[in-house]
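task queued by scheduler; priority normal; single chain, no ligands, no partner chains; default sampling; output format set to structure tokens
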Amino acid sequence: MGDTRGLWKYCTKEQIKDMLISFHLLGETDWAEEKILACLFALSNHPKEHYHPVRIPKGRGGYRTLDVPDGLLKKVQRNILHHILDGFTPSAAAAAYQRGSSVRANAEQHQGKELVLKLDICDFFRNITFPMVLSKAFPGEYFPPSVRVMLTSLCCLDHHLPQGAPTSPAISNLVMAPFDEHMLDWCGQRGISYSRYSDDMTFSGDFNWEGVLRKTEGFLEAYGLELNREKTRLCTRGARQTVTGIVVNEKLQLSREYRRRLRQEIHYCRTYGVEDHLRRVGRDETQKRGYLQSLLGKVRYLLYVNPQDLWFREAEGFLRQELNVQYTGTSFYK
């Protein structure tokens, strides 16, 4: 994209102010316009003062640290998301953080393929920098320079995307759109299916996987990003192929181990009663309702992935009945 500053050469300060006010970044408020603008400038000039770190456990052990904005900045970011960013469309290859996307839809396009290659981008959000956000999320043809800089400052922390801000996922898709489109075109010419779920890229089909890896790595480097070689996974048809946690070898399904453990838990609940089962595993009986809700959530997710699983369809009915019985204060087993 060329120099777009000339587009806004005759834009006055009053027009810029009107544009900022029109975004309703502070939501419905009776504040005077000058106070709204002063608040936005303060937030954009000192964003670091409005974040705090939050550690959350990873599924496979360890912790991930998120930079989470405070209530005021989060409100502004949510309004940026809904009033501005929702107007831009990411690549069709982006399988996360947009309406209509889902882990199931992402997995489905890689179902029943000869090879599934999974690649990972290093420090995804941290390596999406201020200039990338400025260029791709708030392009010069739509926003005057001062507005672009303010909006980008409101969405960045220490010159990168903070993992924990509500705007970061949508912005990452916009920043990655040129990469995604390039990979879609390149893969399409070779009969390869490609999708990206945040920092996880998946390629499937019958292809030279080393050539795909080299192509992806080279284009990522040209884009200022890096491939995490340690997380490269190649899955052949003869082995279990998973995409975003879903087995895709033949029909979409959760792993055999996951289904077995869940089936076993429900079997014990039906055989001994939920309260007896909780006592057997050393859990407090007062946790019964929360435990049943957790089991029901797992079953519903399993049925979302594979609606044809009749055993778990019946188990869903049992759990719903148990929750209703618990809610009314009667016991199913008396």
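post-processing summary
- The chain is about 45% helix and 10% strand.
- The first strand starts at residue 51 and ends at 57.
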